[in-house]
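Backbone description:
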Amino acid sequence: MTDQPLLTMVKKQELGPKPSLTTEDELLEQTLCMLCSFYSLADLMSFIASTKFVSLTSHEPPWIGFEIGIYKDHTKTIEFIASPTEFVLADSQMSGAFDGNIWRGMDHPALHDALKLWLNISMSEFQ
């Protein structure tokens, strides 16, 4: 583990009407309004798979969007939407990681691989 986080995540926007949330969901949403940092991709994936995050994003249609970024360079970001039926990554900076700059998938291993690809491409200038 390094002394500096690798990734950040923050609530970027509300995509639609806010559903009725539990108290725990409300608290997590408030926390995600501030920049959260993760020391590894595994840490971020563990958070995304957590019961609390799944509860917050378990509504259809998706109502909340996030921004995942590289800690070393906050200009390198990707948009992330989680719902019960799929994950979506939107690469508005057009890194070339995904066809059409959009990735859609339904499981955590595929999301991990997509984020790893984006991360490797986005961090190539640091190596």
Remarks:
- The radius of gyration is 14 Å.
- Helices lie at 23-32, 41-48, 51-56, 108-122.
- Residues 45 and 108 are 7 Å apart (CA to CA).
